[in-house]
Amino acid sequence: MKLFLTGGTGFVGSHFIQHALAAGHSILALRRPGSTTRVVLDVHPTWLEGPLDGDYRQHLEGVDVLVHLASHTPNPPYAPLDECLYWNVFASLNLAKQAFEAGVKKFLVAGTCFEYGRAATRLEVLATDAPLEPEHSYATSKAAAAIAFEGFAREKMLHLKLLRIFQTYGEGELQSRFWPSLREAAVNGRDFAMSAGEQIRDFVPVESVAAQFVRHLDFAGNSAGAPSIHHVCSGAHQSLLEFAQYWWRHWGATGSLLPGVIPYRPNELMRLLPAPDSTP
Hints:
The chain is α/β, with parallel strands linked by helices.
C-alpha cells in the first residue's frame, strides 16, 4: 500500500517506517525541514518537507492510507492548550480533509492512553469506551482530536482506526524520559534517583508499537463510517519500580537504584492499564 505518514522522524514514527517498509509498503513521509529520525534507518521513505498545516492535496492523490503519528509536545513540559489544540486538532483535521478531497478513504491515527486521565483513578482497567477525562493540555488536545476524527469519519463515511498507545520505551526515546535516563545511569555506574515507583503501567517496547501499527494497516472488518478504537499495549503490567529493577539487572548496573528520593508528579496517575481484551 501507499502510505502518507506524519511524525516519521519521531520516536514511534522512526520505528514504524522500518517495519512498514520491511512489510512492503511504500511511504511518503512528511517532516519538518532539517529534522532527522530518532533511529538510523536502513532504508528511507520518500521524504516531503513542510509544516503539518501546509497544503498537500497533490501529494495525497493515490494514497491508500493516511497514517497520522505527528503530535505536538507529547512530553513535559507541555505547550499551552491553545497551541496543542491548533496542531493536534485543527491542523491535523485539516490534513485529513485534504486527504479526503484527494480520495483517501482510510485513516490510521495515533492517540495516547493519557486521554483517559482521571477515569483511571476509578477504573481498575480501561476499556476503549472508557470516559475521556484528560488532565493536561497535550492529553486534552488528543482527546479532542479523537472526537473530531471520529465525527469526521462518520460524516464522510471513511474508514478510521484510532490507536491509543500505552507506556512506550526503547531506542530513540528522548533522553529526558525514564528508560533512557535509567540506562544512562546504569551503563555509567551511577546511582539512579526515582520516585517510590508504585505507578502500575503497561510497558510496551517501541518495536512492538510499530509492529502493531503496521498490522492495523489491514482494514478488513472496519466499516466505512464506523470508526474503531484500539489499544496499543503489551497486555502485561508491572510497577515502575519493578520495571526499573528488571532493566537495572539487565544492564548489569553497579550503582544503586534510589526509589523514593524524587516525589511523585502532581496528579500522578498511580494505575493506568488497558482492559484484558485490549491486548495485541
